[in-house]
Specification:
Elements lengths: L1 E8 L9 E8 L4 E5 L6 H6 L9 E6 L2 E3 L4 H9 L1 E5 L10 H6 L8 H6 L4 H13 L15 H13 L5 E5 L7 H18 L2 E5 L3 H7 L2 E6 L2 E6 L6 H8 L2
Parallel strand pairs: 3-8, 3-9, 6-7, 7-8
Antiparallel strand pairs: 1-2, 1-4, 4-5, 9-10
Helix pairs in contact: 5-6, 6-7
The structure holds adenosine-5'-triphosphate.
The site of adenosine-5'-triphosphate has 11 residues, from helix 1.
Length: 245
């Protein structure tokens, strides 16, 4: 579904690659957890999927077609089909759950409609449906600033789902959440993944969660892939190779 060929990223003003010559592909229906210690390149990597991160070198193919790095229109279309959830939720605190979820539709609409905040009945119905899917139907009109961390992340997931994505990306979505709630969020992501067969790619620090929920683990170290395989094959040896200096 998505293939990366020899991709590298080097941030301006730095002397080493944040991602170095990675070639890898992902198929629809996979639930992939990306592991690696701090600075390994996990965030940089997942941001390459929707063009939030530009490549210094290499190519990305989507469904067999090359995506031109400079074609902003093409990347906008890809971003519309790529839902993203974030560690710090990236919600608008003073707006309600429903309003925040509706912002997920901005990629599809004219900037004029976005500016006046006008949504069709169908758009609102879809937003309400995904809010119900993440178990927040009773809180639709509550301001997001009054929700717990776990509830905020469920709003983040609903906002991604309202885009009707083909790929769901999580950049450390449970790093700011307590372990019990993190488990709950992963359960929810697994349900969504099974129901919608989305390609799901999640950065996570918790190896136990990765091993229990992922269908595939990719471990990064210093911008390179050092493990790519079944969670059952991510042994203690792989663990030390990934996390020791
Ligand atoms: N905007 C930036 N400018 C310069 N260097 C950057 C920038 N963003 C990231 N880096 C560097 O790129 C490398 C990879 O960073 P990245 O954030 O992708 O790692 P990570 O594995 O997600 O880390 P963490 O788990 O701490 O979030 C690190 O060396 C980091 O310092």
């Amino acid at each position: 579904m998505i293939e990366m060929k020899d991709i590298s990223v080097r941030y301006p003003g730095t002397h080493t690659d944040a991602l170095s010559e990675i070639s890898i592909s992902f198929q629809q229906g996979e639930f992939v957890c990306i592991l690696g210690k701090s600075g390994a390149g996990k965030s940089t990597f997942v941001r390459c999927f929707n063009g939030l991160q530009k490549l210094t070198h290499g190519e990305i193919y989507l469904k067999g077609n090359p995506v031109s790095p400079s074609n902003d229109e093409e990347w906008r279309t890809i971003r519309r089909k790529t839902g993203m959830i974030f560690q710090h939720f990236n919600l608008i605190p003073r707006l309600s759950v429903l309003q925040n979820v509706l912002t997920g539709m901005f990629g599809y609409r004219s900037s004029f409609k976005n500016l006046i905040g006008w949504f069709t009945t169908q758009e609102k119905e879809l937003a309400k449906r995904v809010i119900a899917d993440v178990g927040l139907a009773a809180m639709e009109h509550r301001r997001v600033e009054n929700l717990s961390g776990g509830q905020k992340q469920r709003v983040g997931i609903a906002r991604a789902l309202v885009q009707q994505p083909e790929i769901l990306i999580g950049d450390e979505p449970v790093a700011s959440i307590d372990p019990g709630t993190a488990e709950h969020i992963f359960n929810m992501l697994q349900d969504i993944h099974r129901r919608l067969r989305l390609l799901t790619i999640i950065n996570v620090h918790d190896i136990d969660l990765a091993k229990r929920y992922a269908t595939r683990i990719v471990a990064l170290k210093e911008g390179k892939v050092i493990f790519d395989g079944h969670p059952g094959d991510f042994t203690n040896e792989e663990y030390y190779a990934t996390y020791q200096s």
